[in-house]
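Per reviewer request, we include the raw input and output of the structure prediction for the construct analysed in the revised manuscript.
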Amino acid sequence: MISVGVRQLKNGLTRYLRLVDRGEALVVTNRNRAVAVLRKPDRNSASTLEEKLAALVTEGKLLPAAKSGPFRAFKPVRVKGKPVSRTIIEERR
């Protein structure tokens, strides 16, 4: 872990945030006394659903919806004959 004073952190915030983004952990000190630890949050540390979704969006593993709102009710489609899954398997052979 890297130890950095409050004044150093303030003056070089961008540089230290880049280090944190790369996975380094920073111990922030005030008059040689540790007051905080800065580290990149992991996806499992989020407590609410919104925080978890925001973390997934930040990681690029989730795309936010283009528009929000109620969705129409899902109506299953009935097909006569063989199940669609069987037809797909037969076509792949």
